[in-house]
Amino acid sequence: MSQRNAFRFAHPFRVRYAEIDGQGIVFNAHYLTYFDTAITEYLRHLGYDYEAEVKRTGDDFHLVKTTLEYRAPIRFDEEIEVGVRVPRIGRSSLVFELGIFGKGESEPRATGENIWVNTNQTTHETVPVPDRFIDLIRTLEGDALEVGRPG
């Protein structure tokens, strides 16, 4: 998984007491909350109005897979950054790569991947990722983005 400099976007957090377990480290479920919050901020950074697009199109993304690898502990009151990047977009899916880093660190404390699939909410069928959304992601990710659409 990528080092900190591979991420063009990161969202900062400070670990709260409520997020730690009896061992004094971040409880495992909170890593996914960090990922979800950071993805939301990534979308906001892109200028993508998620709620408005769902209302306008009737399409919505569903999380279909998440992976998480713990590498080093994160403790109470630490400042961390969650890096988010989109390396690949398929016809109806996109992949988020995520990394949690201590402030100023280049090696991740945890890494993960979320896969979203775009689905019409009436038919429950997959639908293409909107071109406008791809363009916004491409603006941030540049040549690092692989788009695998049928030609």
Automatic annotation (TrEMBL):
It comes from the Bacteria. Residues 23-104 form the Thioesterase domain. The keyword Hydrolase applies. CDD domains: 4HBT (cd00586). GO terms for molecular function: fatty acyl-CoA hydrolase activity. Gene3D superfamilies: Hotdog Thioesterase. It holds the Pfam family 4HBT. Keywords: Hydrolase. The keyword Hydrolase applies. Belongs to the 4-hydroxybenzoyl-CoA thioesterase family. This is Acyl-CoA thioesterase.
